[in-house]
Design goal:
Blueprint lengths: L7 E3 L5 E3 L5 H9 L15 H11 L9 H15 L1 H9 L8
Antiparallel strand pairs: 1-2
Pfam families: DUF3408
InterPro entries: DUF3408
Protein name: DUF3408 domain-containing protein
Length: about 100
């Protein structure tokens, strides 16, 4: 974790590799999308330590204007889409209509 903000890391073979912060996948999927406004909101309760972690993540780049709610929404949207088939299968076991 200490090399998170460095541009390059050295692997076990002494070769330079892009750091986590250079990988566009996570940053685009979760950080960039977490700056979008949420038009309609609902209150949910989550563990305090999770709020603290997300708050620290949001503070890394203040210009991105990441909110805790937007980050959680982005992560949940990704989770629901990634696990869509499993979730629908689980839901259909007990309910006749599709969930998603």
């Amino acid at each position: 974790m200490e090399n998170l903000h460095q541009n390059q890391q050295t692997n076990s073979h002494g070769q330079s590799e892009p750091s986590i912060s250079d990988k566009p996948g996570y940053r685009f999927t979760f950080i960039e999308k977490s700056t979008e406004q949420i038009p309609r909101r609902k209150c949910v309760y989550i563990k305090e330590e999770l709020v603290d972690i997300i708050g620290r993540l949001a503070a890394v780049k203040p210009g991105h204007k990441i909110t805790i709610g937007a980050y959680i929404s982005t992560v949940l949207e990704h989770h629901l889409e990634f696990h869509r088939e499993d979730i629908e299968c689980y839901y259909k076991e007990n309910m006749p209509n599709t969930l998603l």
